[in-house]
Design goal:
The structure holds 2 protein chains of 2 kinds. Chain A has a domain at 36-88. Chain A is 80% helix and 0% strand. Chain A has helices at 2-28, 40-51, 54-84. The longest helix of chain B has 38 residues, at 185-222. Classes of the chains: A mainly alpha, B mainly alpha. The A-B interface holds A 23, 26-31, 33-34, 41, 44-45, 48, 54-55, 58-59, 61-62, 65-66, 68-70, 73 and B 60-61, 63-70, 72-73, 76-77, 80-81, 162, 165.
Amino acid sequence: MLVRIRVPQAVRLTLPALVNEMILLIKASSLVSVVGLADLTRTAQNMAASDYLFVQDYLMLAAFYCLINIPLAFCGGLLEKRLKGHLA
Amino acid sequence: MIFDPGIITDHLDEIGSGFLVTLGTWTSGVVLGIGLGLLIAIAQLFGNALVRAPLRVFIELIRSTPFLVQLFLVYYAGPAFGLSLEPVPAGILSLGVYGSVYFAEIFRTGFESVARGQLEAADCLGITRWQCIMRIQVPQMLVIILPALVNLVTILCKETAVLSIITIPELTMVLTGIGSETFAFVETLLVLCIGYLLLVEACSRLGMFLERRVGRFMNRQAQ
């Protein structure tokens, strides 16, 4: 009952909020660079610190985050449309 | 592990100034964000496609990149575009721009929630579009969007902690600095939490108070 009835409906209803929260989390993950984890942001910082190409490096960094988040939002929207018919 | 309140009381004036800087950058960022957001929302709702398309792209770009990255772009990459700012103005500018797109989305839903009949009535009465926006739509939508607005303002308050990375001497910068000088991380970080808790709590209390006030006003109008 839980798996076949409640979970599918809950997923369908909470999908927009879920996708939103996922994007927020991905953006918040940039903050782990502060404690020294070599994530995307840290790597870009290191590159900028060694080659002084601040504009290129940080624009690339922003582009990478867009590359993750925009498709995620797009897929979320598609999935929402796809699931719309399954629930009144 | 002994809790030593002396570390906090010794640095009380530094912590106070850090608190004020946080408060200052937060409020200026929010004011800038609300101003820009209102402009973006109005341009999106009433502008032609030539205005709307670039704004849509701008909103998507800002919303899908982290605040930290935007801060780096303004502060470190800004000078290459002739935008050499001190840390504090750079922080306020990025906070304002970051907040503005979220404010714009909130304002847009607010504008859309005011009944169309009222706009048609205003049109019939010869009220200009600008008057209609400022006198009819904005007051009503402010009531509707107030909870969302307070929510975003508290989020921006917590976002100001990131400003410490570009050396703005705000609460986080000051307290982590004291922490690394004295190795008293528990005391300093606890006070840091309490500082943000105070700010956010005060803001949400104010929001609840305002909600009750305007709620009363709305109820009276409905009767």
